[in-house]
TrEMBL record:
Residues 1-15 have a biased composition (Polar residues). InterPro entries: Cholesterol_7-desaturase (IPR050584), Rieske_2Fe-2S (IPR017941), Rieske_2Fe-2S_sf (IPR036922), VanA_C_cat (IPR044043). This is Aromatic ring-hydroxylating dioxygenase subunit alpha. Its EC number is 1.14.13.-. The keyword Disulfide bond does not apply. Pfam families: Rieske, VanA_C.
Length: 355
């Protein structure tokens, strides 16, 4: 397994990423907008080109990404420390952002680099803006969101398919109008593949009845069928390695070319209580000519089919009733959903109690 821990890329500050305002860290708020003290996928790397800026909302908070000409990436709370104006409205000065309102300059570590209107002002040299740690992998940016007692980033072990040179992956990114937990719970519900995705080229086989079990691992747990394997969406592993992600494998038909089954690494990141961003890396363990064939087939034939499957998930999740998780009647197939929901609720309550 490839592990990425501090030190992080050059230019990334060590300042806490805590930006909470009073009342922001209740258990209900954390449950709705994401637990802290872990890493989350932020956006595709190409959203922030060299010399570019990107404003975005994550975990119910507003942020600014900017990249220097040399490729170094920074992330700041989208808030000038002077009067609270949005830094994203300011000017990119290479290694810093100048607020449009009064020209206050904040560098990539969140430190006030200059106050042009009053040189020597006591704001200069102070780290007053939250600036999370960042890392890039698999074509995406990941950031660590900590609280005031967990400023240093949690150790991060990246998903193997994103770091293995013998694996070829494509990143699919989308934003859905649904709470992030529903996106995670959808992945911990393999049985929906036999119904919602029944017409998919990769999920048309297998039984529509099954029994499931939870199997513990050192990094999380498997939720898997006990009476079928290697036919459909038969198992999923939730991995907690500093970032939460799921891994699953679905067999490909022969028309998908050489390379055996394809896998999916999935992550969901809260935007706010009603929206999330989803990251799906579709991968195969292929090298040489098989890699070239797989990548060609994916871009010319398979990618559109995969987006059709994602669209089915989006439509179903976005149209869930507002009280969907308040009036459920769950059964044995929902053990994975119950497990992950209780896990996040417990962590939200624990973090709120320490806020």
């Amino acid at each position: 397994m490839t592990t990425a821990t501090t030190p992080v890329p050059q230019g990334t500050p060590t300042r806490p990423s805590e930006v909470a305002r009073p009342g922001d860290r209740t258990a209900d708020r954390l449950f709705a907008t994401g637990i802290r003290n872990q890493w989350y996928a932020v956006c595709p790397s190409d959203f922030v080109p060299a010399g570019g800026m990107k404003r975005l909302t994550l975990l119910g908070e507003e942020w600014l990404l900017f990249r220097r000409a040399d490729g170094t990436l920074h992330m700041l709370e989208d808030r000038c420390p002077h009067r609270g104006a949005r830094l994203s409205l300011g000017k990119h000065l290479g290694d810093r952002i100048a607020c449009w309102y009064h020209g206050v300059q904040v560098d990539g570590t969140g430190t006030v680099a200059a106050v042009p209107g009053l040189p020597g002002c006591n704001l200069e040299g102070k780290q007053l803006v939250a600036a999370p740690h960042l890392i890039e992998t698999g074509g995406a940016i990941l950031a660590y969101f900590g609280d005031h007692t967990h400023a240093e980033p949690a150790p991060l072990t990246l998903p193997e398919p994103l770091t293995d040179p013998g694996t070829s992956a494509f990143l699919c990114y989308a934003e859905w109008n649904v709470n992030w937990r529903y996106a995670v719970e959808n992945l911990l519900d393999p049985m929906h593949g036999s119904f919602l995705h029944r017409d998919s080229h990769s999920m048309a086989e297998g039984q529509t009845t099954a029994r499931f079990r939870i199997r513990e691992t050192e990094r999380g747990f498997f939720f898997e069928k006990t009476d079928q394997s290697g036919v459909n969406f038969d198992w999923v592993e939730l991995c907690r390695t500093g970032v939460d992600w799921v891994d699953l494998t679905i067999p490909y038909p022969p028309t998908a070319g050489p390379g055996g089954p394809f896998g999916i690494v999935g992550m969901a990141t809260p935007i706010d209580e009603n929206r999330c961003s989803v990251f799906f890396w579709r991968y195969r363990k292929v090298t040489g000519w098989q890699r070239d064939t797989w990548r060609f087939l994916y871009k010319t034939l398979l990618e559109d089919r995969h987006w059709e499957v994602l669209e089915q998930d989006r439509v179903m999740l976005e149209d869930l009733r507002a009280d969907a998780d308040q009036a459920e009647n769950l059964y044995q197939h929902d053990l994975g959903v119950v497990r992950v929901r209780r896990m996040y609720r417990t962590e939200a309550e624990t973090q709120a109690a320490k806020a």
